[in-house]
Amino acid sequence: MSGFPTLLYKEVLRFWKVSFQTVAAPVLSALLYLVVFGHALADHVQAFPGVTYVQFLVPGLAMMSMLQNAFANSSSSLIQSKITGNIVFILLPPLAPAELFAAYLLAAMVRALVVGVGVFAATLWLVPIPVLHPLWALAFALVGCALLAALGIVAGIWAEKFDQLAAFQNFLVMPLTFLAGVFYSIHSLPPFWQAVSRFNPFFYAIDGFRYGFFGQADVSPWASLAIATAAFGALSFITLHLLRRGYKLRH
């Protein structure tokens, strides 16, 4: 019964020991995006009525940072364990696949949520942000982080070297997060690209998260939550299947 909390503690401690790199650096990156894009476009773009562009940016940047760090935490932990060979110490104890999945998932979510709180704390001195529906914001934060944490576990299982993991992140995760409405409302796009954006599950996490602050969104929050949750459920099923098979973990 002590296996799951021990693994969870180990995974949380792993990123917290280097928090300057795993937490402070993403917060700084989000601030730089806010300063650059806010300065360049603040006078030219208004995505939602009554919401300044800088205010519009903050929730999107916070969620983007959370998504990317949730993925980075679970995927990097697994690939490091596989390459160094200490994955055997994870597989030998009588841990059920669900326990492995939950430990990596929750640790990644903790890191992502800490980064998200850091982004908001760092931007308070720049722009005040209303929180009209805090429960909606929390729900989308949890679902979004869980979705990318599960995707990170899949990537960590599949990748056999850091180059493959970097390709997964650079050609899938990063484009999908940047094209998920972080810097714009999809209603500003041509109809074709609006339709394309609706196939991106990251968009629903970001759009719903933003609804929690401003009470405005491009899509109904109920629909966004349903789609994001369904995507997480599908990824969870795939991840548990891979863990039960020991795919690329047991040689």
Distance between the termini: 26 Å
Order of helices and strands: HHHHHHHHHH
What's the rounded overall pLDDT mean?
Answer: 91
| Largest pleated sheet | none
Low-confidence stretches: none
Q: Number of helical segments?
A: 10
Shape label? globular
Number of strands: 0
Strand content: under 5%
Content-based structural category: mainly alpha
Chain oligomer state:
single chain
User: Helical content, roughly?
Assistant: over 70%
Radius of gyration of CA atoms, rounded to a whole number: 18 Å
Structure report:
With 251 residues, the protein is mainly α. It is 75% helix and 0% strand. It has helices spanning 3-16, 19-41, 53-84, 88-91, 97-123, 134-158, 162-178, 191-197, 201-214, 221-245. The protein is built from ten helices and no strands. Helix 5 crosses helix 6 (134-158) and helix 6 packs antiparallel against helix 9. It is globular, with a radius of gyration of 18 Å.
Question: Which helices and strands appear, and what pairs or packs with what?
Answer:
Layout: H1 3-16, H2 19-41, H3 53-84, H4 88-91, H5 97-123, H6 134-158, H7 162-178, H8 191-197, H9 201-214, H10 221-245
Helix pairs in contact: 1-5, 2-3, 2-5, 3-5, 3-6, 3-7, 3-9, 5-6, 5-10, 6-9, 6-10, 9-10
